[in-house]
Amino acid sequence: MFKQLKKSVWEQLCQKIWHDFRPYLGNSFAFLFATGFSISLLVASCSSNSTPTVTSSTSPGDSATSSAVVRIGYQKAATILSLLKEQGDLETALAASGGSVQWFEFPAGPPMLEAMNAGSVDFGYTGESPPIFAQAGGTPVRYIAYDPWSPKAEAIVVPKDSAIQTAADLKGKKVAFAKGSNTNYLVVKALASVGLQLSDITPAYLPPADARAAFENGKVDAWAIWDPYLAVAETAANARIIVDATGLAPNRGYYLASQSFIDKYPNALKIVLEGVKTRSDWAKSNPTEVAKFLATTLGIDAAPLEKAEQRREYGVLPLTDEVIAKQQEIADTFTKIKLIPKSIVVQEAVWKG
Q1: Which of 109, 171, 270, 334 is the most exposed place for a label (fewest CB within 10 A)?
Q2: What's the pLDDT tens digit per position in 209-240?
Q3: For residue 148, which of 323, 325, 330, 315 has the smallest C-alpha distance?
Q4: Euclidean distance between CA atoms 321 and 327, whole angstroms
């Protein structure tokens, strides 16, 4: 119904909402973001199909979407964007207003954001650390929304027969993790919790595939990794968790976009967000189907993937003061230990909506 409103009527409605609710809002962006997503959810829930579809909310010929080519960076293990790519939801939604989408696969978040800095990617999803490194490096990245994920969905593992029992035992050991990733922060916090520093270990900066090979071949003593690779390590790589992120790191995921894309194609961004929200809601209610999908995509048995799905959360949520403050804490930690060259203000990289 909202999609059929004339532009002038929509503007009047927005003005009334703003007038009526502004006195009560501590965070107007959070309200407007949540309102927009609520409308998307209402539209999606009206579908009778078990697999949701995403529709364009702009009319054909809309100058802010027409001819838009949305370049999305994704990782195979990044469930929602992988689902969007596989199902073709976004292609259909954007085509309705003359737009299109291109997909670019990356092994981890940092190289994806490097591509965004180079102007090759418009939108993507990463863990909590990559956007901090990107902002510190001058990348015009903007936080659009966050995914709660789960602190139990990342951990430091060792071989089952290893003498290492706690984070304190990592002193002097070689630990694999992706530099600038969410597990980079987990390693820092896990070491700090037992009075150690990053300099007390030998980091092996490796992407997931290389890290797994090094772990299984005994080239490293421990491995900090996230789901679904974590679940696979537990079930297929003879790994044992010594510490997960509970009480150490929030392990949130973030949907990110370049400022130039936001400025040029705001309606295309809205369509992308609607697609992400719809797929996220579907994944939350269909863990078995998600596991089957990832099994095919990743070439991994479905059993460990179901385990990963059972301990993760889904959501496409507006950034709150609490979430921003936690990101700032992570950034300050990286500044203190000189992992990033200068201090940053995370709030400056948050999309204003």
Answers
A1: 171
A2: 899 999 999 999 999 999 989 999 999 888 99
A3: 315
A4: 10
